[in-house]
Amino acid sequence: MQTLNHLASVSRRVAGSLRPLATNLSLSTDSRDGGGTGGALEAGWGTASSWSTGEHFNGQSEWAVLGEMQETEEKVRELEAENRKGKAYVDSWQRRLTETSVLLKQVEEPGARGSYLKDSEKAEMYRLHKQNPEVYTVEKLAKDYRIMRQRVHAILWLKEIEEEEEKNLGHPLDDSVELLLDTFPDFFNSHDREFHVASLPYKPDFKVMPEGWDGITKDVDEVHYEISKKEDEMLYREFLEKMNFNKKKMAGEVKCHRYSRRRPTDGWTFTVEKLGSRGKRGGGGGWKFASMPDGSSRPLNEMEKMYVRRETPRRRRRILP
What we know:
- By secondary structure, the chain is mostly helical.
- It is 54% helix and 5% strand.
- The chain is built from ten helices and five strands, in the order H-H-E-E-H-H-H-H-H-H-H-E-E-E-H.
- The protein has helices at residues 2-32, 50-53, 62-91, 93-108, 119-131, 138-145, 149-169, 176-183, 220-250, 302-311, and strands at residues 56-57, 60-61, 270-274, 287-291, 297-298.
- It starts with a helix and ends in a 10-residue tail after the last helix.
- It holds the Pfam family Bot1p.
């Protein structure tokens, strides 16, 4: 009797241990047979376990961890790029404000520029003009460097004088002052007007127009600009005349001391002005010629024409620079 009881208990234990295996086998068989509900519980007997291949670490796939880290790094890089872009935009505000102030000053006063030329830029200007004067003319250099034509002439003449001095001395000139100006340009006021702006007396100008008049009046700023351009051309011509005269003085062609004005041995040469048909001088119809000591005459040369132009009065109001 005891033997039968022991056999029954052993049978029950064996049956209990085999029950989970039978359940798994039945589920796997149902899924392979095409059951719609067993797809999610498929054991996948023909595939290797991810736990044995090492694709999981602490219950999580290593590739999933790497993918998340890569996405995080990409987001960090995007944020850093946005920060750099924003920082560059914020840092450029000082330059933008400076440019805006310069533009506002130009609107307020059209002639204001305030551009400072370094000595290296002046040397480059002289080199370009000397290398190809047909291309790099005075007008082109003035437009490129945004300065007046008079200033371009002065810079070219100054560099020409410096080059001649260096050839005579045999060594370069001292440029300590130029280096100081180039190093600290903000300490010195170079100029504040780069093209002429006419100073006009603004006052009310009332006119009585005829009935039915439908004419168009010019804008005040347009008239101001046209007058400024005309005066600028006049000042430019006068500057060239004075500069050419000073060049001749430095070259020794213009004699103004008392020993050079003594009477020549063959006599003086006089400038004679013949009256025109209307009996007027100057622009009224007359012309000038040179009377030689032997009684002959000849036309005026370039030097004498320059003297005549300098002696001719300019009948205009005073132009303030």
